[in-house]
Amino acid sequence: MALISSSSLTFFFLASTAAAFAAAAAAMAHSSTIDYAEFTIADIQYSFADGTLTSRQLVQYYLNRIHTFNPYLHAVIELNPNVLYDADLADRRRLPTSGLLHGIPILLKDSIATRDRINTTAGSLALLSSIVPRDAGIVRRLRAAGAIILGKASMSEWANFRSLYAPNGWSARGGRGRNPYAAAVDPCGSSSGSAIAAAAGMATATIGTETDGSIICPAAANSVVGIKPTVGLTSRAGVVPISPRQDTVGPIARTVADAVAVLDVIVGYDKRDAEATEAAAKIVPKGGYWQFLKEDGLEGKRVGILRKGFFRFAEGSLEEKAFASHFDVMRQKGAILVDNLEISNVSIILDPFKSGEEAALLAEFKLSLNAYLSELEISPVRSLADIITFNNEHKTEERIEEYGQDVFLAAENTNGLGAVERFAIKRMAELSEDGLERLMKKKKLDAVVTPDASGASILAIGGYPECAGWLCELRGSFWHLLWGIEGV
Questions:
Q1: Which position among 47, 190, 355, 368 bears the catalytic label?
Q2: Where is the signal peptide (predicted)?
Q3: Which of 194, 214, 223, 379 is catalytic?
Q4: Pairing with 13, which of 84, 93, 351, 391 sits 20 to 30 Å away (CA)?
């Protein structure tokens, strides 16, 4: 499925070192008056190339914004203490042939491991001062591409899998994240800080993770672009897990083009997540996804609209008018809209008890988390049971009396993948095949669209990809099954 970009798709790197040095003095003064929060990756690379901006200046700009806004927004949980050194290194190593992410500051969700001086805690005090054995797979790819790790973004503690009662965007380490556009609006989770930071211009792009809605929901809620890749397209090695069936890692940014630029870097095979990434790596298109950012990308594409159960807007409402306008634009761009569609078994899929998702996730979480903890070089906790005990011993800091840890307790009571869990996994596969896949094939659809993230579980249980984006007043989530078959 092709994507439409709002930014320029072509840029040139200037090779004149002399010109770059000549412009350096002017750049120092010039950069302090420019709002880089609105710059795309292409804009930034233009500025790097013509000598009007350095990675150090860009990092300092983001640090200033973080120091100004983070006390209120709680988007960033920890900064990289070596970030200015890393920026200087990127400036020294920049070449005319450097890639799109060279020198670009990226924030990582706090569940993504970095083998440096930054903690990886999933928002929990239980993992504070633990030491991971190595960088996560996607972090190695980012560093190899020249990206700068700015720090860690806050998140819903334990990816919203500790309790049913903790609010979105809250963690013991990071506090409660706030939507930068409207404080009263739920920022969603669990990649809340990644979305808030992207929206507030605290980094050029961020990375989130998703098991069921955790990239898409906060991206939509904070009016940014989030891409949830097909499970296995990006490595989960070194990421605090919930489910190897459903976990995935993806970019969050202010434009589709920026999100795709990051996606191109983080996809691919990883021997530490071989089972998932080996098959998916074969469907990554040669040349990456950036090549599909074309103005005529929707030409001839069949896009289904899932009305029933999703479009609940009052007739004549602002939301209804916004979507009608958006669909008109899609038609003008050559898309063939197939309206009033329905997934026959959607009510079962969206009920985690009936679908089997709840039973499977609880067991998978305990197994996966215990395996992750066992690999840590240093850690005060080595199992889910240890974390439950830690929380009980630190009730005030972890707000156990208020939010509890009911999901943890339910997961701890599981005993591996038994008959019940295996039946649940089989049932979800059948529901996916009989539901979304059957609809897509029957109607010959390239993509399906809904107005929000309320259908995330449909994509979650099938491992399908999804993209959340916005246009003017519109916030929408776009589901691309074609990506799941042929490369995203």
A1: 190
A2: 1-19
A3: 214
A4: 84
Per-residue three-class SS string for 190-214: CCHHHHHHHHCCCCCEEEEEECCCC
- Could you tell me the fold of the domain covering 17-292? Amidase signature (AS) enzymes (3.90.1300)
Tens of pLDDT, residues 175-206? 999 999 999 999 999 999 999 999 999 999 99
Query: Is 111 annotated in the active site?
Result: no
Residue type (1 letter), 259: A
pLDDT of residue 334: 97
Q: Kindly provide the b/e burial profile for residues 107-145, where b requires at least 16 CB atoms within 10 angstroms of the residue's own CB.
A: bbbbbbbbbbebbbbbbbbbbeebebeebbbbbbbbbeb
10 Å CB burial of residue 404 (0-12, 13-18, 19+) is middle
Q: Report whether 94 contacts 17 (CB < 8 A).
A: no
Tell me the whole-structure pTM to 2 decimals: 0.91
Q: What residue type is 393 in one-letter code?
A: E
Rounded to the nearest 10 degrees, how much is the dihedral formed by the CA atoms of 319, 329, 440, 459? -50
By DSSP bridging, strand 447-450 and strand 175-176 are: unpaired
Distance CA(288)–CA(295), nearest Å, equals 17
Residue 32 annotated as catalytic: no
Amino acid 444 reads K
Q: Is 214 a catalytic residue?
A: yes
pLDDT by residue (tens digit) across 100-142?
999 999 999 999 999 999 999 999 999 999 999 999 999 999 9
Residue 458 CA to residue 347 CA, distance in Å, equals 10
Residues 403 and 165: beta-carbon distance below 8 Å: yes
Under 8 Å between Cβ of 285 and 291: yes
Does the structure show a pLDDT above 50 at 484?
no
pLDDT of res. 424 = 99
DSSP 410-432: HHHT--SS-HHHHHHHHHHHHHH
Separation of alpha carbons 76 and 57, rounded Å: 19
Side chain identity at 71, as an amino acid letter? Answer: P
Phi/psi of residue 105, each to 5°? -75, 130
Between the CA of residue 438 and those of 265, 356, 445, what are the distances in Å?
A: 32, 20, 10
Domain boundaries, the chain: 17-292
Residue 333 has pLDDT above 80, yes or no: yes
* Active-site residue, selected from the candidate residues 5, 31, 47, 109: 109
- Strand pairing partners for 206? 107, 252
pLDDT at residue 475, rounded to an integer:
35
DSSP letter at 437 equals: I
Give the pLDDT confidence of 386-401 residue by residue, as tens digits. Answer: 999 999 999 999 999 9
The alpha carbons of the chain give a radius of gyration, in whole angstroms, of: 22
